[in-house]
Amino acid sequence: SSPASAHSKQASSSKMVDKKSRSKEVVTREYTINLHKRLHGITFKKRAPRAVKEIKQFAAKMMKTPDVRLDVKLNKAVWRKGVRNVPMRLRIQISRRRNDDEDAKEELYSFVTVSDDQSGKLTTVVDEAQALHLVIHHSGYTQKKK
């Protein structure tokens, strides 16, 4: 065993500690979940309930917490068009939070809510001057110079 291999073993063990602690920290992330591929071939009357289960399963996998709680708004977004017409994709926000209950089995839980912006990565910041220019340009209105 050379000193170089001993060093690499030490480095890998510290990485493992980092990974463990990373899954323990409180964090909020946004994801786009593709419900279409998860519900393909599911009976119509079971689609919305299955979508809720799939979202819970997705959140548990991403946040590494078995305890997943869903927001009422998310449930309404899934059921908005009925039991069979579930949205193809949903932009969701998952928060890993501390469990404050004394008798809780898990120290962390995940809270899933529907994200405010459903446009995904296409979000851009537009200032007022730029917005006014776009409105004038797209409406066909141009001011004549005197």
UniProtKB/TrEMBL annotation:
Q: Quote the cellular component terms of the Gene Ontology held in the record.
A: cytosolic large ribosomal subunit
Q: Where is the signal peptide?
A: none
Molecular function as annotated in GO: structural constituent of ribosome
Q: Which domain of life is it from?
A: Eukaryota
**Region feature (Disordered):** 1-24
Keywords, alphabetical: Ribonucleoprotein, Ribosomal protein
Q: Which Pfam families does the record cross-reference, listed alphabetically?
A: Ribosomal_L31e
Q: Would you kindly state one Gene Ontology biological process term found in this protein's UniProt entry? A: cytoplasmic translation
Output compositional bias ranges, type Low complexity.
Answer: 1-14
Give the family, as the similarity comment puts it. Answer: Belongs to the eukaryotic ribosomal protein eL31 family.
Recorded protein name is 60S ribosomal protein L31
Species of the source: Strombidium rassoulzadegani
Taxonomic placement: Eukaryota, Sar, Alveolata, Ciliophora, Intramacronucleata
